Amino acid sequence: MMPRLLTYRRFVLAVACLIWSTAFVSQPANAQLTFRAEMANGESMTGRVASLTNDEVTLESESGTAHRIALENLISLRQPVRAGWKILPAAGQSWVFLATGDRLCVEPTRIDDTELTARWNRFEALPPIKIPLEACRGVAFTLPSDSVKQGLLLSSITDRTETSDLIVLRNGDRLQGELVGLQDEVVTIETSLGEIQPKARLVERLVFNPELTFAEKPEGLVRTVLLSDGTILKLQEATANSLTLTGTLLAGTKVTLPHEEIHELTISGGDAVPLAEITPDRQTITSFLDTKRPPRFGRNVLGGFLTMRGRPSLTGVGVVGGTTLEWDLDGSWKSFQTSVGVDDAARGRGSVIFEVRVDDRSVWRSEGLTGSDEPVAVPRVDLAGAKKLTLHVEFAQQGNVLDYANWADAVLIHMTSRK
């Protein structure tokens, strides 16, 4: 019986090794992943990423033809939706938020005086990531699924102004003082009552002293990457071959990412500028009820992740029904483009109508959209000679109940966009 048992065990081990090697070694097929490139000059093309430098990306078409695109002319590289591929849900995971706008689906394992070390929640093959502590805004140890609670938690991390470190426990207790560190799943903070050491599993969120947080304004092009786990990384430089992308975060950390986990890469600071980076000159909120929610830039109107039908947006403006935003134009803008829809926070409900106006003239208007409708791509809007751009969202049905409207992937395109 013993030799037969050993033979069976060897068979099981061989099958396990075969499965492992198929999952991790048989990756050359990933080299055939295609991305759709959208450019500021209005052109688009689809192909395999052959290479990426700090100046250009080369796409290779099915026929083998190489197309070189200047990064300054690139708006986005996006994987077409394919069977079985989706952005994984954010709730229930731990997240780290940076002052540079990055968000990482990682679990902190150690925090000392200089850096935060974390392991990826969903990418076990990637090495732990180390981030300078001065770049960290906070940690959500478990992101809630409720959209209102999620928005409140994120806002409490990114918008806090009190000049101290803060730990909020799951039972609601607040510990304020100076963080000593995180080690062996224990968080230590020095408070006015002395040193307190709660276990990490009891912590809801950790917010770092914003006075000690530093985020230098980037110069030149910024490459923003969306991963399949919802992570958003902002890179000051990046290169890629046919299998992986290697880059440096604005915070200084180096990362290497497999193509199959990259859903989208966008470029800002070139011919296209995210509308969320330009403050409106005027805004009006006409509330159907008493509550008035101000617009949120880069997030939905509740302050949570800007997401429609399971797909996060890398940039955009979240508003509520009855909101009008106006930007004065100086003649340097050629066009405007965006996609619109109701955020997933509405859970399939809400009902709004979107309208784009140029110099107070309506140039595009949607049908009534609800939280169950797919996002709608607005045809590129001509801004040549225009003095004002107005984005308006009005109530459709049921007043503005759950009217969490998104102007997603909204960008202004310079008049001098490259051919």
Offer a quick outline of the entry.
This protein is mainly beta.
Secondary structure: elements and pairs:
Layout: H1 2-24, E1 34-39, E2 44-52, E3 56-60, E4 66-70, E5 74-78, E6 95-98, E7 103-104, E8 106-111, E9 115-120, E10 129-132, E11 136-140, H2 147-158, E12 165-169, E13 174-183, E14 186-191, E15 194-196, E16 203-207, E17 222-227, E18 232-240, E19 244-249, E20 254-258, E21 262-268, E22 272-274, E23 282-285, E24 296-297, E25 307-308, E26 311-312, E27 316-320, E28 323-328, E29 333-342, E30 351-358, E31 361-365, E32 369-370, E33 376-382, E34 388-395, E35 404-414
Mean pLDDT: 89
Largest sheet: 10 strands, antiparallel
The helix fraction, in percent, is under 10%
Radius of gyration: 23 Å
Total helical segments: 2
End-to-end gap: 75 Å
Shape, per Cα inertia axes: globular
Commentary on this structure:
The chain contains two helices and 35 strands. The chain has helices at residues 2-24, 147-158, and strands at residues 34-39, 44-52, 56-60, 66-70, 74-78, 95-98, 103-104, 106-111, 115-120, 129-132, 136-140, 165-169, 174-183, 186-191, 194-196, 203-207, 222-227, 232-240, 244-249, 254-258, 262-268, 272-274, 282-285, 296-297, 307-308, 311-312, 316-320, 323-328, 333-342, 351-358, 361-365, 369-370, 376-382, 388-395, 404-414. A ten-stranded antiparallel β-sheet has the order 4-3-2-1-5-21-17-18-19-20, with no helix packed on it. Strands 7-6-11-16-12-13-14-15 form an eight-stranded antiparallel β-sheet, with helices on one face. The longest helix has 23 residues, at 2-24. The model is unreliable at 1-31 (pLDDT under 50).
